[in-house]
From TrEMBL:
Keyword Signal among UniProt keywords: yes
Stretches assigned to the Heparinase II/III-like C-terminal domain: 377-642
Protein name: Heparinase II/III family protein
NCBIfam families per record: olalg_lyase
Length: 752
C-alpha cells in the first residue's frame, strides 16, 4: 500500500512539474506585455487548438535551429539582404520566439538562450555608430542600414525579453536593460527627433518599440514620449499617428502595402496599451479605427494579394506576418467570425492570447466567409482627401471564386511612397490582374539588385505617370514629379454607387497640371447578353490651351489581335520619349491619327479580353513595352497601349474592357473567343456624356454620366434619334432588339 501511495505521489508530482508555469516574480520583473494568467491559459489550452499547436511547433523548430547554431551577433556591415542584416533579423525573431516558448513549456534552456544573446547585444550595441552601409537620404540605424529596421528589432526583441526578464540575475538584467533596450530606445527617440516625431510608418515602429520598452522597464517617461511625442503634448507620438494616418474608414495614407507593414506595430502596441493603460480605450479611439483598419486591409486585396498601388511589391498578401497578428488582435476584440476565414487562409496564428482565441474559434468551426464587397474608402484623417473606390461583382462563373474587382485610385499622394497617378485604375478578373499597376521598382532584400533597396528606375519609371493607367499631359508627370506638391492636393470624389447590375465611381482632378481639369468615370456593368461583366471607362479633359494628351493602359496577357492599322517596328524598336518615364518605353507598333474606334484583344489565364477604345478628337494608338534604357535589366518587361490626342484643349477618351470566352490547353478547346460587343460610341450633350455599347445580340446598353452629381438635377441628351432623360448623377438605359426599355435607376426614361 505504501508503495502505491509513493507511486501516486510521484506521478502527481511529475504531472504538476510537466504543467508548471515558470514562477511568477513579484519584484517588478514579471511579464507585462502578456501577463502570467494568459501565459498559463495558453500553456494549458494550446495543445487542444491545432492551429496554435502547429504555430508553437513551427516556432520551436525555428528557435531550436538558432540554438543549435549558437549565439551569433555579428558586427553590422551589410545592407538589406546581406548576411549581417539577415542575421540580426533572425535574432530578433529567435528572441521573441524563445521568450514565448519559455513561458509555454517552462524549459529554462529557452530563457538561457535569450539571455545569452541579449548579453552579446549588451556588449556590442554600446560600441556601434552609424551603420556603414547607410545610403543617401536614409536615416542610418545602428544594427541595420536604416533606422526603421532598428525599430522593428526593438519591437520584436522587447516582447521576448518581457517573457524571460524575471529569470535574469539582477546584474544581468541591469546590463541588458541599460545597454540594449534603454540605449536603443534613447537612440530611436530623443536622439532621432525628426524621425520619432514624424507622422509616418517609420515613426509607428519606433513609438511601438519605445513604448513597449517603457512598459517592460517600468519607465513611464518612455511610455509617455511614445504615446504623446517627445514634447508629450500629443502633437506627435503614437496616438497622433492613429488619428492622422488613418481615415475614418480605416484606410492608411500610404496605401494597402504600407498599411500591411504598419499594421503590426499599431495593433501590437495597442494591445500593450490596452493591458497596461486600459483607461485610454485605445481600440475605441477614433471610432475604433484600428479595428476598422484590419477589415479595410483585407478588403483592399484580390485573390489573396493586396492592390499594389504606390511603392508596393506585388507579392504581398493576406498571409503576411503583420496581418496574421492583426487578424488575431481584431478577432479577440470583436469576435467577428469572418476574420476566422482569413486566418484559415493564412494557415497559422501567433503565440499570444489573441492567437489562441483565433485557433480555438477555427477548431470550433465558427468561421464565416469574409464578405468582399464594393465600397468607397475615404482617404485623409478627416475623410476629405479623396478615396479608393472598389467595385466588385460575382461574375457567375462556377470556377471563379474571386469574381471581378475594379479599383479606382482617387486617393491623396501617400507621402514619399506615393505615385503620380491620380484617377488611376486596376482591373482584376478570373483570379488575375488584367489591367495592372507596376508598383515599386525594387527587389526587396535581393542584394544583387542595388542591395535590395529601391532601384533608380523607381523614380525614373515606376513613380512616373506614364507607368500608370491615367492621363499624362505634354509627357510630364502629375505635379511634375514633386510629391510634396502633390501631397497638397487630392481628387474630388463625385460619385459612388453599387447597384445589382451597375457599379460606378467618378472623381475629378484639378491640380495635377496647371490649367487642366480631368474627370473620370469607371463602371462595372452586367448584361444578360455578355458572358461576364464589362468595365466601362470615360475620361474627359478640359484644358486652358491645346496640349498633348496621352492615356496609357497597362495590361497583362498575350496579344491575340490588333484591331487597327499600325506600323510595326519589328526590326528596330524606337524609344517613345526622353523623360518622365517615356525613355523606358520601347515602341512596337503605332497607328496614324484617326477618329475611328479601335480594339485590342489578348489572352490571360484561359480567358480572352477585348478592349475597345476611342476619343472625341483624332487620336493615335501605340503598342509599347517597358524596358528601354535599362542597362542593368532592372525593369519587368510589360506591355501597354497608349492613346494620344495632339493639339486639343478639350478631349474625351472612352473605352470598354470585355472578358469573354475560354481557352483550355489541356482539353484543347476554345470557346467564346469572339467579343460579344459589336461597337462602342460616345455622345456629348450639354452637361453630360453617354457611352453606348452595341452588343452582337442586337441589344444595347447606354451609360449616362452627368457633370454635376447632384441628385435632383435633370438631364437630357438627344443622340441618334433617341432622347435620354434622367435625374441625378448617372443612369443606365438598356435597349433590347425589340426596343423595350430595361429599368435603370429611378427617374430615368428613354424615348424613340
Amino acid at each position: 500500500m505504501k508503495r502505491i501511495v509513493v507511486w501516486l505521489a510521484l506521478a502527481l508530482a511529475l504531472a504538476f512539474a510537466a504543467n508548471a508555469q515558470p514562477p511568477a516574480a513579484q519584484d517588478g520583473t514579471q511579464p507585462v506585455l502578456v501577463d502570467g494568467r494568459d501565459w498559463q491559459r495558453m500553456r494549458a489550452e494550446g495543445a487542444h487548438a491545432p492551429m496554435f499547436a502547429a504555430e508553437q511547433a513551427r516556432v520551436e523548430r525555428m528557435v531550436r535551429a538558432a540554438m543549435a547554431q549558437g549565439v551569433v551577433v555579428p558586427v553590422p556591415k551589410d545592407p538589406g539582404g546581406g548576411y549581417t542584416h539577415e542575421q540580426h533579423k533572425r535574432n530578433y525573431l529567435a528572441l521573441q520566439g524563445a521568450g514565448a516558448l519559455y513561458r509555454l513549456t517552462g524549459d529554462r534552456a529557452y530563457a538561457d538562450f535569450a539571455r545569452d544573446m541579449l548579453l552579446e547585444y549588451a556588449r556590442l550595441y554600446p560600441t556601434l555608430g552609424p551603420h556603414p552601409a547607410r545610403r543617401g537620404e536614409q536615416t542610418s540605424g545602428r544594427l541595420f542600414w536604416q533606422q526603421l529596421n532598428d525599430s522593428v528589432w526593438l519591437a520584436h526583441a522587447i516582447q521576448g525579453y518581457d517573457a524571460i526578464r524575471d529569470t535574469l540575475t539582477a546584474a544581468d538584467r541591469d546590463r541588458v536593460d541599460e545597454d540594449v533596450f534603454r540605449r536603443m530606445a534613447r537612440f530611436l527617440s530623443e536622439e532621432s527627433p525628426e524621425r520619432f516625431d514624424a507622422i509616418h510608418n517609420h515613426a509607428t515602429w519606433a513609438t511601438a518599440g519605445v513604448g513597449m520598452t517603457g512598459y517592460v522597464l517600468r519607465d513611464r517617461d518612455l511610455v509617455d514620449r511614445a504615446l504623446l511625442g517627445l514634447a508629450k503634448d500629443g502633437r506627435a507620438g503614437f496616438l497622433a499617428q492613429v488619428d492622422r494616418l488613418f481615415s475614418p474608414d480605416g484606410y492608411y495614407a500610404e496605401g494597402p502595402y504600407y498599411q500591411r507593414y504598419a499594421l503590426a506595430p499599431f495593433v501590437i502596441f495597442a494591445g500593450a496599451i490596452q493591458r497596461n493603460d486600459p483607461q485610454r480605450g485605445i481600440f475605441k479611439r477614433k471610432d475604433g479605427v484600428l479595428l476598422k483598419a484590419v477589415d479595410t486591409l483585407v478588403q483592399t486585396s484580390y485573390a489573396g494579394y493586396f492592390f499594389p498601388i504606390n511603392d508596393a511589391m506585388p507579392d504581398k498578401g493576406l498571409d503576411t506576418e503583420e496581418l496574421v497578428a492583426g487578424i488575431a488582435i481584431a478577432y479577440a476584440q470583436t469576435q467577428d467570425a469572418r476574420l476566422l476565414s482569413v486566418a484559415q487562409r493564412q494557415g497559422r496564428t501567433v503565440l499570444t492570447p489573441e492567437g489562441l482565441r483565433v485557433a480555438e474559434g477555427v477548431a470550433e468551426k465558427l468561421a464565416k466567409p469574409f464578405a468582399f464587397r464594393p465600397l468607397m474608402l475615404r482617404d485623409g484623417a478627416d475623410g476629405d482627401r479623396g478615396g479608393l473606390a472598389i467595385l466588385r461583382m460575382d461574375d457567375g462563373h462556377p470556377d471563379d471564386e474571386h469574381g471581378q474587382a475594379l479599383v479606382m485610385k482617387n486617393t491623396s499622394q501617400g507621402m514619399g511612397h506615393g505615385h503620380f497617378d491620380k484617377l488611376n485604375w486596376l482591373f482584376y478578373d478570373n483570379g488575375r490582374a488584367v489591367v495592372t499597376d507596376y508598383g515599386a521598382a525594387r527587389f526587396l532584400n535581393v542584394e544583387a539588385k542595388s542591395g535590395g533597396t529601391y532601384l533608380p528606375e523607381n523614380n525614373s519609371w515606376a513613380k512616373q505617370t506614364v507607368a500608370h493607367n491615367t492621363l499624362v499631359v505634354d509627357e510630364r508627370s502629375h505635379f511634375d514629379g514633386d510629391w510634396k506638391r502633390g501631397e497638397a492636393y487630392a481628387p474630388e470624389p463625385l460619385l459612388f454607387d453599387a447597384k445589382a447590375d451597375t457599379q460606378i465611381a467618378s472623381a475629378r482632378m484639378r491640380d495635377a497640371y496647371d490649367g487642366v481639369t480631368f474627370t473620370r468615370t469607371l463602371a462595372l456593368v452586367r448584361h444578360p447578353d455578355l458572358l461576364f461583366p464589362a468595365a466601362v471607362d470615360l475620361l474627359r479633359v478640359e484644358g486652358a490651351a491645346p496640349a498633348r494628351y496621352d492615356l496609357p493602359l497597362h495590361f497583362n496577357g498575350h496579344i491575340m489581335s490588333v484591331g487597327f492599322q499600325a506600323q510595326r517596328h519589328d526590326a528596330v524598336r524606337p524609344v517613345l520619349g526622353a523623360r518622365a518615364g517615356y525613355q523606358h518605353l520601347w515602341v512596337d507598333a503605332e497607328s496614324a491619327a484617326s477618329t475611328e474606334v479601335r480594339s485590342l484583344a489578348w489572352l490571360l489565364g484561359g480567358r480572352f479580353y477585348t478592349y475597345r477604345f476611342g476619343a472625341s478628337a483624332p487620336s493615335r494608338a501605340w503598342l509599347v513595352e517597358s524596358g528601354a534604357n535599362d542597362p542593368d535589366f532592372n525593369l519587368r518587361r510589360e506591355p501597354a497601349l497608349i492613346q494620344r490626342v495632339d493639339g486639343a484643349a478639350d478631349a474625351t477618351f472612352f473605352g470598354v474592357l470585355e472578358p469573354h470566352g475560354e481557352y483550355n490547353g489541356t482539353a484543347e478547346y476554345v470557346r467564346g473567343a469572339d467579343s460579344r460587343i459589336a461597337g462602342i460610341a460616345h455622345v456629348r450633350g450639354g452637361d453630360a456624356s453617354i457611352v453606348v455599347l452595341r452588343l452582337t445580340s442586337g441589344s444595347a446598353l447606354a451609360l449616362a454620366v452627368a457633370d454635376d452629381p447632384a441628385s435632383d438635377r435633370a438631364h437630357r441628351i438627344v443622340a441618334n434619334g433617341r432622347t435620354y432623360e434622367w435625374k441625378g448623377a448617372w443612369a443606365r438605359f438598356d435597349s433590347p432588339a425589340a426596343q423595350s426599355a430595361r429599368p435603370g435607376p429611378p427617374d430615368t426614361k428613354e424615348s424613340p
